[in-house]
Design a protein that fits this description.
homodimer, 212 residues, mainly alpha, Arc Repressor Mutant, subunit A, Tetracycline Repressor, domain 2, 2 domains, 9 helices, transcription cis-regulatory region binding (chains A, B)
């Protein structure tokens, strides 16, 4: 059961994008430039002009691929945050509490990374602009939430032998990440080890109670 | 020990502000106008010009009192949010879980109010602008956190007969409000009853465990 059989059919979620492929290096240069400049200059100081200059591409190249700086930042999120926020539950019989703490620690550290600062800037801008809010939800948050629910469920099933319903899994995800986002977005400070530990303990207590 | 002796010395934190007092009605008109216009037009559409017009005061009157629209919004927070977010723990022997749920329900509802939308806009803008972040922390968040820690401690002591240290109280406050801010800021939706209930249960389980 630990080694799923290779699936011979095409997975619809990994079908490659159609369109010109010769500019992949330009695309990556733009994403990295946007990321770097956001950290250096902040959201207000980030311009298409500045990104083009740093990436060494023409402005019209950028406008061919993206409508706005928010669009560019959403693409850097899709590339970087998805990987950084992935649940990496070790194989075998490990302890639920240690695994959950390790995952939450990674999420807490993520807020100090450039990719985490992109997410913070986009969540910030989403409070001020409905279109950014909608794009962030459909372009990143909705899928990230599905991955988080699946990841937490896998952890609970394997280490705690606990199965929870959809609704409960959603609440446990809110309880897992809420305190980390609260510290990062509201107080803007690095997240203490104690916050991570207390959060993981509370999540597992609620999971055990919900399953009982 | 439950009744501290009244302190006869002046408390430095309640010294009243000095300065002209004749314009209190103008001050309130400006704060209400800013609040209303933020809800109607959003943060980007909020201007000093628009606020002056709606409040029926001259622009220079506004600039005499405030440096920017962020400054005005911070003042509306101080007036409105402080009251809306106050802990109202009933006297007598009531249940900790019901009291905590009732408080968290009020905080969840607050995000749907104009004052809650002011807080969301300021937290959003704080992600994009360091000066707003610093002003929001020193002008509101720091004191609100002290009130929250005191309120939660009072609830735990009275209903649960549990005393927790400073560090633990801070963690319990993060766990209480984190999921609500996460739902409101990241997902931008009204907060379900289930989120409030699950959060309150988890907080009290962790409080009991921390005290044991």
């Amino acid at each position: 059961m630990s080694k799923p059989t290779a699936d011979a059919t095409d997975r619809p979620d990994v079908i490659s994008r159609t369109g010109p492929r010769r500019s992949e290096s330009a695309r990556l240069a733009v994403l990295h430039a946007a990321d770097d400049l956001l950290v250096e200059r902040g959201f207000a100081g980030l311009t298409i002009e500045g990104i083009a200059q740093r990436a060494g591409v023409a402005k019209q190249t950028i406008y061919r691929w993206w409508k706005s700086k928010v669009d560019i930042l959403l693409d850097t999120l899709a590339d970087d945050a998805r990987d950084a926020l992935q649940w990496r539950i070790p194989e075998g019989d490990t302890a639920a509490e240690e695994d959950l703490k390790a995952h939450l620690r990674r999420v807490a550290d993520f807020f100090q990374d450039p990719a985490g600062q992109v997410l913070q800037a986009l969540v910030g801008h989403a409070q001020l602009d409905e279109k950014t809010a909608a794009a962030l939800r459909s372009g990143f948050l909705r899928e990230q939430r599905e991955r988080d629910i699946a990841g937490l469920r896998a952890l609970l099933t394997r280490s705690l032998h606990v199965t929870v319903g959809d609704q409960t899994a959603g609440r446990l995800v809110d309880l897992s990440f809420g305190p980390l986002y609260y510290r990062a977005l509201v107080f803007g400070e690095p997240i203490d080890e104690e916050v991570v530990d207390a959060t993981a303990r509370a999540v597992l207590m609620l999971a055990r109670e919900s399953a009982a």
